[in-house]
Amino acid sequence: VARSVDAVITPSTALADYLRSRRVSTPIHPIPNGINVEEFRTGDPAYLRRAIDIPPKSKVVLTCSRLGAEKNVETLLRAFAEARKTVDAFLVVVGDGPLRGHLEDLAKALGVESSVHFTGSVPPDKMPHLYAGADMFLFASLTDTQGLVVVEAKAAGLPAVAVGALGVKDMVSHCEDGFLCNNDVGELAARVVELLNDPDRLAAMKAAAMGNAS
């Protein structure tokens, strides 16, 4: 299809590079999808702790995605469980999908059931409140052509620890407003611990995330 048209628009340079690697010679123009940045800066930081029984001293890690195999949430959950051995953190999983039951069972098997909350689907107008109540964003998808939820998180001032796959690589400035990792449980967990254990760096990355989202 890409070879048969006059031009192709992609939402990220990573996807453009992928098409070129498949010998697509059609002119390709990466144009990311935008968001209303200000919409994600109006959330109520207290909303999440009111809605969910989160221990008052726990740092809040947020992730948002369809709960399907392509989103790699099992790896994310294992990484959180590993990080949880070192830091007092609580994971909020926003979204629904065919693997929800499996992931809930996995949380039990990993011993983090009491530190993980699955919200199911959340109306878009509530999302700014969820972002506002978190400390960082964790994302392990292997298939996102852009990773728009990462941009939403950054707009709300959340640094991201993410697998650097496809379009997500364009959305995170490594070591500035987050960390890009390999698809590796240990590396993801180490970056979560590094960020949550360093309040000064967390604050600096929060500011950089908000600035870079504009």
Task: Explain briefly what this protein structure is.
The chain has nine helices and eight strands.
Folded structure, characterized:
This protein is an alpha/beta fold and 214 residues long. 38% of the residues lie in helices and 16% in strands. It contains 9 helices and 8 strands. A 6-stranded parallel β-sheet has the order 5-4-3-6-7-8, sandwiched between helices. Strands 1-2 form a two-stranded parallel ribbon. Strand 1 (8-10), helix 1 and strand 2 form a beta-alpha-beta unit. Helix 3 (73-84) crosses helix 8 (185-196) and helix 6 (148-155) crosses helix 9 (199-213). It is globular. The mean pLDDT is 95.
The pLDDT mean sits at 95
- Spatial strand order of the main sheet: 5-4-3-6-7-8
Q: Quote the distance from N terminus to C terminus.
A: 33 Å
The largest sheet, given as strand count, sense and whether it forms a barrel, is: 6 strands, parallel
Taken as a percent bin, the fraction of beta residues is 15-25%
Share of residues in helices: 25-40%
Classify the secondary structure makeup into a structural class. alpha/beta
What Rg, in angstroms, do the CA atoms define? 17 Å
Q: SSE string, helix = H, strand = E?
A: EHEHEHEHEHEHEHEHH
Uncertain runs with pLDDT below 50, 5 residues or more? Answer: none
